[in-house]
Amino acid sequence: MKKVVYYSRHMPSPTRPGTPALLRVLNDRTALGLLLENGPTTRNDLARLSGLSKPTAAEMIRRLEEAGLIAATGESSSSRGPAAVLYSAVTDRAIGVAIDVQPLGISSTVVDATGATHPVVFQAAGDAAGEPDAATDLARAIDAACAAASCDPESVTVVCVGIQGSVEPRTDDLVFTDELPGWPRHRVTATLSEALGADVHVENDANLVAIAERREGAGHDASTFALLWMGNGLGLALDLGGTVHRGAAGGAGEIGYIGAPVDAAAYDPDARLVDDLVTSRTIELLAARQGITGDGLDELLDAIAGHPQRLLILDELAPRVGLVVLPALAVVDPERIILHGPIGIAFGDDLATRVESWLEQHSRWSTPVSGPSITETPVLHGARHVLIDAVRQALVEAVAHLPSPGDDPPELSRTTG
Predict the structure, then answer these.
(1) What are the boundaries of each domain within the chain?
(2) Which Pfam families match (predicted)?
(3) Is there a shared CATH topology between the 95-208+378-387 domain and the 220-370 domain?
(4) How far apart are CA 117 and CA 111, in angstroms?
(5) CATH number at 220-370
(6) Model's pTM, two decimal places?
(7) pLDDT for 52-88, tens place per residue?
């Protein structure tokens, strides 16, 4: 993957305010943004969408096409008059890769500025030779995703990685995880960015799922919501008005580390942490009471799905989930609770309705609880939204550095935040 030139959105404009050159840059950015947002567009439609004159739209198209940022990709099918040329943004010069790092393996997929869907590739843990190494594992995931999407890995400028943990934003240290063998504990994003030659964003997996549910799922119409991730571990993502709250040290929502409440003894006298109430250990315990066994969480969830005592298990699970979300209700009072992760996906609205009922009967809150809307690769869905914004920003910022006639096309920019 190639190195790219860094341009921060906070850097001074290359032109003086109010000059024709600045207006040209603003117009060109508008044009490119509209093409990214709307797909193939004619010159006349671009003028209409931008509110600019047809000659100005034609000039914008000329400059962007000469710079290699857009290209003619066909003709319109209008029945009136001659067919008009359709222009599209050239997106293969800056692409991203979304990666989900889980104990069983790594999933990855290419993301471009159009948001088009590309194949998801899974590589099982232990497939690579030698000791685990974060940079090596991520590079393999990037190469595999690019191969599946027929993309050049050299075009990857940004990577978003979902992990079961967090990165301390002030120190760039890896925190709230005892797993991830082979990962650097200090200067995490800096080290990985240097090794991969791309801008690496490392994000908590539950936070990425909350981004996905906000953009296209159960949280899209809620002013605030809390997303409870339930699987081999436990996490809580907080969306406050469309922004995920990460906390000063990146540890907001790491509720699994706090002590179990006194009321938990009625359901699990051995629970010492909140994490003990709703994780794979809990599912194994509740399944065993019904004579259900399995090797690992996924196998247990599959066995429960078709078992006649499934709803009885959910009746026992719901109070535990209710106890887990009560702190979030007391502190944030979100408009909605979304149950997610492998357990939330497996039990869906059947569990959600039981948790909502328990909260109404045993607390002062009557907060709506829902199951997940996005059940297939939800972490990658969230990472895709992060990357779509990032690669679009890189393309748009390249407009400020369009060459004069005869110069080489500009290098694509990316922001560092």
Answers:
(1) 5-91+392-414, 95-208+378-387, 220-370
(2) HTH_24, ROK
(3) yes
(4) 7
(5) 3.30.420.40
(6) 0.85
(7) 888 888 888 988 888 888 899 888 876 566 788 999 8
